[in-house]
Each structure stands twice: as C-alpha cells, then as structure tokens.
Design brief:
The structure is a homodimer. With about 210 residues, chain A is of the alpha/beta class. Chain A has 5 helices and 11 strands. In chain A, a hairpin with a 4-residue loop joins strand 10 and strand 11. Chains A and B meet through strand 3, helix 2, helix 3 and strand 5 of A and strand 3, helix 2, helix 3 and strand 5 of B. Strand 3 of chain A pairs antiparallel with strand 5 of chain B, so a sheet runs across the interface.
Chain lengths: ~210, ~210
C-alpha cells in the first residue's frame, strides 16, 4: 500500500451511495504532508514527461495543482465553473455534469492562459465518470495544446472515467484506485499498483 | 514598491466599475513565483505570531493558503460556499454577500476542522467590503478559536473592509493596498507601505 491508500484507510469515511469522504485531509481540510507526498509522487510517475503548465478545475484540485506548479516551477491554471453559458470570444468553454451538485456546469478558461505550445499536466482530486477530466481535455485541445498526462489522487475504479481515458490513450496516473468499498463494514479494496521506492524522509518540498 | 505592486502595475487590468483584474497571475492563472513570494512575505510580516492553521475560502484563496500551509507546515482549511442554508449540527455556518456574484452565500466549515485551541491565520486574495473576512472570523469564533491575523494579497483601500477590520483590532496585513485606480488611464495609486528588505533570490521555497 502507498501513503495515500494508507491515509484513506486511516481517515476516509465511506458513506452510503458509494461516497468516499476524504474531507479531513484532501478536499476541505488539507493535510499538507499528504499533499506534498502526492506532488512528489506525481512528479516521479511523470518522470521524463515534458510539462510546462498545470491545469485543474476549481475548487478542490487547486491545492495539489499549486504544489505541483511549485515543484515543476511552471504556471498553474484553474478552470472555472459557471452555470451561465457565457461563451465569448475570449474563453474556451466545455460542459461537464456534476454528480455532486446534480447539474450541468460550464467549465471555462480565458484564452490567454492556454497556448498551442503548452504541454499540460491535468490534476484533480477525484476521477469517477470522467466528466471534469474530459471537459479539461476538451479545453486543452480547443487551444491546440497537448495533454501531457492526467494525475488523479483517488480514482473510483468501478466507474467509467478511468477505463475510458486509458482506452483513449491518455497517460493517466491515479495514486489510489478504489475497486470496491462497503459503507456497512467500512472496508475498501484498492487496485494493486507498484509501490514507489522513495522513503518518506526525502519527500519534503522545502 | 514591493513585488506584488510591481506585478499589478505590469499585468493587472483595470475595468470600468472599480474592477481590478489580476487573473493572469493570481486568480485564474497562477504565477507560482509571485505566489511563493507572497507566502514568504506573509510569513515575514507575521513573524513571531503563533499560527497552527491556515484558513481561506474557496476558490481563489486556496493557492496562497496551500503554499502558506507548506511554509508553516500546518493544516489548511478552506471554507465552502453554498446557496442552500443547510445549517446542521456538524457545521459552523456564517453568511457573506458576494459582490462578484451578487448573491448571499452561506459559508461553512465542518466542525472537526476548527478547534478551540487553533490559532488561525486567515488568507485571501482580495479584501474589499470585508464580507468574506468577517464570515471567516465569525466561523473561527464559533469554534472558540483565535484569529492570529489576516493576510490579504490586494486590499481595495477605498472600501470599508480594511478600515473596519483594523478598527476591530484585527491584525491585518495587505501586501498591496489600492488607494485609487482609473480605468481610462490605467493608473493605480498604492498606499505607501514599508518595503521589505528580503532580496528576491532568497524567496524560493524549494
């Protein structure tokens, strides 16, 4: 098991309806040490991949995107959500259905912040049906830029997002992939992944 | 002039209606070097102040809050916004009017993430009428915790937030205070502040 899987087992809470709550360390309160380890682990997994921009979507992807931007020393862009379809000349706009909020969102980026020369590493906290990830890929392609890869903290392995993205040939790295979870017994089964060899002591960004 | 004032002069755009757009480096695209310098400058200004938690509000405060959490090595919490008044036993809830979105938002934090022993440094990108800052202070006080200080990137000096907070005795540090701006001439006047003595070369977090 890697550090994130261990943290999920320790502090995650499974709720009825296939919901994994990790807001004690990932998307409401942020455990800065877990976040730093995530940043280092993404950089390790995407070793050798050219990246000159980090892209995420507001709000909970911003923390990990910022630490990755710091680590890569490249700009970070976060796509914004809006219910109004204010597609204008100066924005790239895509659509994504939010299962959390049960509504369709427009997702947009101002055109000056994505360029045709960009090699974009997309990061987000969760991947389930892949709505947000596909919207972000769409925005990158609208700009004529390239998706260098997608880094996800927690992938819900039974939902279609991960398998679709891999079938599309996207380089996808998910730090923890939940294969099964049971709210009544509070048990989780993760998909097996090779464990990284880096000792925790070496993971400080400072 | 400090680094942030220089950056605002260089890349900020003044729009009609007293709007300062800084989304090329602060709240849509993030210039990671400016963000790192902001984190260091907050830490310098709050030197000697005990801080064991960083608090902000989604979405654009999360980037600077994350780098400050990294620098202080303490947890970060971001308050969430919701239009629904789902005040429950497990959340602290306050209200804040958003001038950007022209609506009243509920702002909430799950109770386990604010404790009576917390010394909370509140950070945000903008301070204008102080709605968000007062809501965050309210949440901290509901938890019986202490506001160690408030760090703001850009304060709009003509609006009431800053003067109210200072009158209330809150320790407020704004990196750039806009006294006047004119969209027709694209000119800005900043309130004079002592310039920090740290050379830029020493500001890398890495």
């Amino acid at each position: 098991m890697n550090f994130l899987e261990e943290k999920i087992l320790q502090d995650g809470v499974i709720k009825e309806g296939n919901i994994l709550k990790v807001d004690s360390f990932l998307n409401h309160q942020i455990d800065i040490d877990v976040m730093r380890q995530m940043a280092y682990e993404f950089k390790r997994r995407f070793h050798g991949v050219e990246v000159n921009k980090i892209l995420t979507i507001e709000a909970s992807g911003i923390a990990i995107a910022t630490l990755l931007g710091h680590l890569y020393d490249v700009p970070v862009v976060f796509a914004k959500k809006s219910q109004t379809a204010n597609s204008t000349d100066d924005k790239y706009v895509a659509q994504a259905y939010s299962f959390t909020h049960k509504k369709m969102n427009n997702v947009f980026i101002s055109k000056p912040y994505l360029n045709a020369t960009d090699k974009v590493l997309i990061v987000d906290d969760f991947l389930a049906d892949g709505q947000a990830a596909h919207a972000l890929i769409d925005l990158v392609h609208q700009a004529g830029a390239e998706v260098a890869g997608i880094g996800i903290a927690i992938e819900k392995g039974q939902q279609k997002g991960g398998s679709e993205l891999r079938a599309e040939g996207v380089r996808l790295e998910s730090l923890a992939i939940v294969e099964e979870m049971d709210w009544q017994t509070q048990t989780i089964k993760f998909r097996e992944q090779p464990v990284q060899k880096i000792a925790n002591q070496n993971l400080k960004l400072k």
